[in-house]
Structure formats: C-alpha cells, structure tokens
Hints:
This protein is mainly α and 345 residues long. The chain has two domains: 183 residues, no CATH class; 108 residues. Helices cover 65% and strands 1% of the residues. It has 20 helices and two strands. Helix 9 runs parallel beside helix 12 and helix 15 runs antiparallel to helix 16.
Amino acid sequence: MASTVPLHIPRFLSTIGRNRNDGASIKGDSSIVKSPAKRLNRISNSNSRPHPIPPNRTYVNQNKSITILSKNEDLQGLLSFKNDRVVFNEVNWSTLFNKLGRFKGRKDEIVGDERFKVLLEELEEIIEEDGDSWGIQSVSNIFHSLAVLNVHSPPILNYVSTLTPKIIDEGTPQAISNVAYSYAVLGVEDDYYFESINDENVIEGILKKGYVQDISNTVWAGSCLGYGMEKWVEKIGGGEGGEICDLIVEGGRAQEIANTFYSVIQLEQNSQNSIAGKKLAEAIENKGASKLVKFGGGQEIGNVIWSMAQGKLECDGLVKGVAEEAERIVGIAKIMEVRIFDEIF
C-alpha cells in the first residue's frame, strides 16, 4: 500500500439522493479501555505520603463519568464536562463526541451551543497538532459522531482524508465502514478513499472479519455518493450458492438488509449487471421475508419492494407477508412510506 496520499480536496455535495441510514450506530464503546493502569503497590508504612493518581487512571475515570452522563441522558452535563481544568486524551475525546452523537435528535441544540463550538475548536487544534499519534478507531468514532450531528469540519475532513492509507491498512471493518458512512451522510466525495475501499483485499477483510452492518454501510455510502463499487457488487454476487447474500440476509437486521439490497440494485442499474441483485432477492424471498415483515418498518420494507420492482425481480413471499401485516406496517410508516405502499398495492 502506498504511503503517500494524492493531493486533493474532498468535494462537498449540495444534494445527494440517499436513504438516510440514521439507524447506523457505532458498535462497541470507546469508553472501554482495554489496558487500564496497574494498581499502585500498597505502602505498608502508614506515615508514607500517598502516591498521586497516575494520569492514565484519571483518563479512565473521566471516561466513566462521561458514560454515566450519557446513560442519564444528561446533555448539559456532557457539554459542560470539558473545561480548562480537564485534560483529555484521545479516548476521552472520542468517547465524549460518541456520546454527543447519540443525541442526534437534538443536533440543532447541540451544534448551536457555544460550549460545543469551543469543544470542536479545541478538538480541531489538537487534531492538527497531534493527530498523527491518534488511533484509527478514535478518529473514525469522532468523524462518525460529527456526521450524525451534520457538522462539517474542514480540519477534520482534511485530516481524515490524509489518513486514508492508514485507515485501510490498520483500521477494523467497523472503522473503515464508519468513515465511508460519514462521508455519505455529510455529502462529501473523496475519490481516493472510495477507490481504496473498492479493493478486493479490503472487501475480503470486511466480509471475513466484519458485521453485516459494516458491509451495508460501505455499499450504501458508495451508492449514495455515485461511486460504482464494482468489485463490491461482483463479490456480493459471486459464488455458486450465493453464500454472501445468505450471510447478509441471515445475519443482518431489517435495516441492514434493506439498505444493502437497495444499494446493490442502484449500483447494478448503472452497470447493467444484475447477478448480485438476483441472488440477494432470492435470499430475501427464501430466508429474509419473515424477518423483514416481523421486524422491519415501513421504510425498510418499502425500500426492498421498491428495489424489487426496479430490478424486475420476484417478491411474492414478501408481498404476501406484508399484506397479512399491512395494518401494523402502515401504522408505523411515515406519510412518504404509506404512499409507497399505495403505489405497490
């Protein structure tokens, strides 16, 4: 993998036709520190002066406090937690922004708050000065959180862009997919990044070590931003028995199945290749219809049936299941989704 990055500026898109995957989430918790500091040896001499609290123990305690504030849904506490007396490490920054991102329903309130503006400005300065020493997971978590809050930060966008080789070489499937997803949500094109993840070795790594959510977010992001993702489509449609399609349908949640299928159909319409779409449709009909009907909402089911129609694919089992559960599904669908069902039925 080349160690240099082509000079380019990520492109901002004013509008992109996309199905917002607002349900995407960061798996795991950056507040968990796998290697906490060893406890200091106890001193038998009661007159001895106590040892000072080591800095890394302070960082661990700060992470715990941030997590407690999040569990208590204390947004004001999160916004006020970092001040001039509190020193953060990268995990603290990652955890704080991760927790703020979970209040995406109040993003206008967060982004308009002066405390958030100060936090972001300080983070940008630290990233520019010391970002090279930060771990990929922390960076991807922060980028994801800013994306769900719809915050465009040029310093962080440029920083993430220059990290592409490191993200590809060292990042987990979660980190790689989170970065792709964040670009799509923000409407920012980065040719070098999406060319890099449309690589057979990267695809193999995500398929072998990742979750269906990682597959779904990556393919969905490429589709939203207009990248062909040809090797992804080819890989999903590969194999004699449609093993990858079965993996997606059997292991994925309703939203992940719907987003992957929708994205594959969109990508195939541009490439005139329909193998992956057909295999995914077969897997959905044979193994996923009941899951979609039972656990899917109007948006997920509507997207799947609409995609079936776009690809001229059979979905009798799914339509039958939807008809039996129509009252429940339409009851939780939004007005736009109800119109989809009116057109289909």
